[in-house]
Amino acid sequence: MAVASIAQYDWPDEWPELMSMLLKLISDQTNMNGAVRGALRCLALFSGDLDDKLLPKLVPVLFPCLYTIASSPNVYDSSMRRRALAILHSCIATLGVMSGVFESETRGLMTPMLKAWLEQFSFILSPPVPLEDPDDWGLRMEVLKSLTQIVQNFPGLVVSEYSVFLEPLWQTFVSCLKVYELAAIKGVDDSYAGRTDSDGSDQSLEAFVIQLFELLLTVVGNRKLAKVIKRHASDLVYYTIAFMQITEDQVHMWSADANQYVADEDDVTYSCRVSGALLLEELVGAYKMVGIESIINAVNKRIEEATQAKTSGNPDWWKLREAAILAIGSISDSLLEPQYEGNHKFNLEAFLDDMLAQDIGTGVMEYPFLHARAFSAAAKFSPAIDKGRCEQFVYAAMTVFVLDVPPPVKVGACRALSQLFPRSNTEILRPHIGNLFSAIAALLKEASDETLHLVLETLQAAVKADEETSVAVESIISPLVLNIWAQHISDPFISIDAVEVLEVMS
C-alpha cells in the first residue's frame, strides 16, 4: 500500500527502477506470500493510472509475467491469479481508450499474446461453474471483464479467434444457471451476497452473473460477432429468462420494502433481472424479427414449463412464469412497433386473457409478485389493449387497491391504473372510484420518495378519468398533495407531479 501511494507521485521520474523491481518480485516463486502477493497488489493499485506514455513500454514485459501467473494454477493460488487478471483488465481498458488515437500501435501491443490469452480464458471458463465457490467465480469474473474490453475495443482482432472462447463462454453460462437456481432463486446454497475481496471488489454470485450478461451484451452488440451467435439466439433467450427469476433474497427484501421494489423495477439498480431484460432488448436490436420470434417462442416454452411445475407441486413454479411475463413485457415497445406488429406470432389477446384467468385470478396473498407482474405487463401493453379487457384489468386493479394486500401488488396496480384509466369507460367504473380515492389518500400519507411518484401518477389518472367524483373528494385530496409539494419542493419529479395533480383538480 505504501509503495503504491509513493509510486503515484514518484514513478517513473523519481523512481524509474520501480517497475523492473515489481516485475522481478512477481516472478519470484520462492517468496509467494511476501514478494509475489505484495507486488501484485501494488501493481493492481496503480495499474489504472498508467497512461499512453508508460503503458506501451510496459505491456511487452508485463503481459508475459501476468500470463505466467494466470496460467499456473498449481503454482499460484486463485487470489493471485485473479489479481493478475485484474491488472490485465485494467491495462486492456487503457489500451482500448488509446486505440481511438493510436490504433495501429495498440493493435501491435495486443496481437502478440492475444491468442495465448484467449486460450487461457478458455481454460478457465470451460469447467462447469462450481457451487459455493466465490474464489472460482471471482477468477471467471476477471476473465469476463477482460474479454468484454477486448470485444468492445479490439473487435477486429477477436473475430478471427472467436471460436477459441465462445464455446467455453457458453459452458459457463449454462452451468452457471444451475448454480444460480440453487443458490439465489431457491436459496438452498450460499450465493455469498455482499461478499467482497481484500480490494473491495464484489465476489457474490449475483455480481458474477451480471458480468456474464455484460459480456454477452457486448458480443451481441458487435456486428461481426452477432452474426456468429445468431443461430443460437433461441437458446440464449431460453436460458436468459431463467436467470430473470426473482431470487429468495428479493422476495424477502421486496416484501418488506415496497420502495426498493419500485426502485429495482425502474431499472435504477444492477441485477440479473435488469441485465437479462437489457440482453433481450439488444437481441431484438441486433436480429429484428429473428430476435422477436426467439423471445416469443422461449416465453411460451417457459410458461408451459411453469404450468407443468405448478401441476407437479413445485412451490417455485410462479417465479418462472413471472420471469417469462417480465421478458415479454421488456420488448413490448418492439412488439407494438408498426414494422413488427402483425408480422410476429405473439397473440396479445390470448396472452392478456391468460393473465386475467391465471394470474389476476390467483391468490393475491400467496403469489403477490405474480399478481404485480400481470398488472405491470398490462400497463406495458396498454396502447394495444381493447376496451373490454382494459376495463377488466382496471376493475381488478381497483379491487386490490382498496384491500390490505402486499405492497408489491399495489405497486403493480398503480402502474396498471395510471396507464389504463385513460382508455376505460368511466361510467362503468364510477361506482368504485370513490373507494379508490380513499385508498390513494391513505397511501399518500405513508408513501416515501420512491413510491410517491407512482402514487401521484395514479391519482392524476383517476382524477382525469372521473372529474365528478374527484370534485367530491377534493377537500380531502388537495391538502395532502399540497403538503407533499411543500415537503418535496426541491425534488423536480415529485413536485411537478404534485403540481400537475393540483392543476387537474382545480
**Percent of residues in helical segments?**
over 70%
Tell the overall outline: elongated
Give the DSSP E fraction (strand runs of 2 or more residues): under 5%
Largest sheet entry: none
What separation lies between the terminal Cα atoms?
Answer: 64 Å
How many distinct beta strands? 0
Number of helices: 27
Query: What class, by secondary structure content?
Result: mainly alpha
Low-confidence blocks of residues: none
Q: pLDDT average, as an integer?
A: 88
Gyration radius from CA atoms, angstroms: 27 Å
Order of helices and strands: HHHHHHHHHHHHHHHHHHHHHHHHHHH
List the helices and strands and how they pair.
Elements: H1 2-10, H2 18-26, H3 32-46, H4 55-70, H5 78-98, H6 103-125, H7 134-153, H8 155-159, H9 162-185, H10 205-221, H11 223-229, H12 233-243, H13 248-256, H14 258-265, H15 272-287, H16 289-311, H17 317-330, H18 332-335, H19 348-359, H20 368-380, H21 387-401, H22 407-420, H23 426-446, H24 449-465, H25 467-472, H26 474-487, H27 492-505
Helix pairs in contact: 1-3, 2-3, 3-5, 4-5, 4-6, 5-7, 6-7, 6-9, 7-10, 9-10, 10-15, 12-15, 12-16, 13-14, 15-16, 15-17, 16-17, 17-20, 19-20, 20-22, 21-22, 21-23, 22-24, 23-24, 23-26, 24-27, 26-27
What does this 3D model show about the protein?
- The protein is mainly α and 506 residues long.
- It has 27 helices and no strands.
- Helix 4 packs antiparallel against helix 5 and helix 6 runs antiparallel to helix 7 (134-153).
- The longest helix is centred in the middle third of the chain and has 24 residues, at 162-185.
- It is elongated, with a radius of gyration of 27 Å.
- The N and C termini lie far apart (64 Å).
